[in-house]
Amino acid sequence: MLEGTKVLDLGIFGVGPLACSFLGNMGADVIRVERPGLDNTYYLVPHKQGASAIYIVIQCNKRNIILDLKTDTDREIALRLAEKAAVVIHNYQPEVMQRLGLDYDAVSKINPGVIYVSSSGYGHKGPLARTPSFDSYQQAMSGFASITGEPGSQGEILRQYMHIDVSCAMGVCGSVLLALLAREITGKGQKIETSQFELSLSVQATRIAEYFATGVSPKPMGSANPNIVPSQAFKTLDGSYINVSIPREEYWPRLCKALELDGIEKDPRFISNAERVRNREQLIPILEEKFASEPARWWLILLRRHDVPCGPYYTFDNIVADPHVAANQMLPVLETPWGKVMHTPFPVKFSKTATSIKPAVKPDSSREEILNEIGYKEK
Question: Domain range holding 170?
Fold first, then answer.
């Protein structure tokens, strides 16, 4: 759907580069401007033949050229690329691009129809506008970490997953698509401003609404859902966990029947979700004792037979081996210059405008091709 749409990736780390990779999934021609010494993600462990596995995945669907934007020569090349781009994306602090002469004002003068995305850490105004940012900082400051973890704890940061980076990249990608649609209607380009902090707040809409209604900050509850009971992990006989949830009242009698706990189905303490939330501490031990009596697989078969929402707790080796994942091609394997890599593409399938995946290329390997396209001859 974006075939013929040129995107200039000036980003660093996760947000900007990942958003550009998603746009590349949709057919955009993405040119990645790599800085000398390469992006820091290139050096993160684990490595695959010298390059970080994270870098290889984030840089899919792009061509690549190394430019030192602090030099006049390479800045001129970047401006020529920006002049021909439909979309320019960066996630530096706002003043960085201004200092380099690649801010929206400079680019829009030579390319009035450009869609220019500036995705900063904390926003473009206020006392934190010039403050560097990172995923873990946003998890902590946005309150996200305060509600993650075991009951009674001070909360936890999701150390092994850049949740805010990925959510923000999705937000950037969506905003670009909307701006492209607006340009089709109005003929005008525009600047898009967003930030990790704003995105980290937006993904917590339900918890913020909860705080606004009660005036009480939500607390860590482990795997439990604060608004639905039961809806959490239960340990089974073989030491594995299953997740069980009752999002609608019709599922409550089904669960009681499956567990052979008919005596609690119409117990006034548990008769509705509101009462079950109120009497969580009385109900959960009853369910925990029951689930501990049989292994996880047994419970999953039984609960699904009774049409009770449930599911396993997977590790990554379980995910890779799952036939449902394979049937839907959720984790395609790409042949890259660094060997085979499993990838997670943009998670949407279109019936008329199919997406595609191109493996990452070596840094600067597209240099000659890119310079020829803009008619630039290196001295």
Answer: 6-203+327-373
Whether 154 and 33 map to the same domain: the answer is yes
**Residue 81 within a domain:** yes
User: Which amino acid does the sequence have at 159?
Assistant: R
Three-state secondary structure readout of 153-203: CCCCCCCCCCHHHHHHHHHHHHHHHHHHHHHHHHCCCEEEEEEHHHHHHHC
* Model pLDDT for residues 29-48, shown as the tens digit of each residue: 999 999 999 999 999 999 99
User: Of 93, 94, 133, 111, which is closest to residue 8 (Cα–Cα)?
Assistant: 111
**pLDDT at residue 161 above 80?**
no
Q: Which amino acid is at 102?
A: L
How many CB atoms sit inside 10 A of residue 219's CB?
A: 13
Examine the domain organization and report whether 179 and 297 are in the same domain: no
| Residue 292, domain CATH | 3.30.1540.10
Can you give the pTM of this predicted structure? 0.91
Would the CA dihedral through 174, 180, 184, 188 be positive or negative?
positive
Give the separation between CA 74 and CA 36, rounded to whole angstroms: 11
Are residues 310 and 299 in contact, defined by beta-carbon separation less than 8 angstroms?
yes
Q: 57 with 96, same domain?
A: yes
The count of structural domains within the chain is 2
Angle 14-84-78 from CA coordinates, rounded to 5°: 55
Give me the DSSP letters along 266-292.
T-TTTSSHHHHHHTHHHHHHHHHHHHT
Separation CA 22–CA 15 (nearest Å): 11
Distance between CA 120 and CA 195 in Å, rounded?
Answer: 5
| Rounded CA separation 282/269 (Å) | 9
Q: Are residues 136 and 274 in the same domain?
A: no
Query: 139: burial class by Cβ within 10 Å (0-12, 13-18, 19+)?
Result: buried
The candidate with the shortest Cα–Cα distance to 337, out of 62, 105, 24, is: 62
One-character DSSP codes across 210-240: HHHHHSS-----TT--SSSSSEEEEE-TTS-
Could you read off the pLDDT of 257-285 as tens digits, one per residue?
999 998 899 999 999 999 999 999 999 99
Q: Which of 162, 112, 174 is nearest to 135 (CA)?
A: 162
Claim to verify: residue 101 and residue 73 sit in the same structural domain: yes
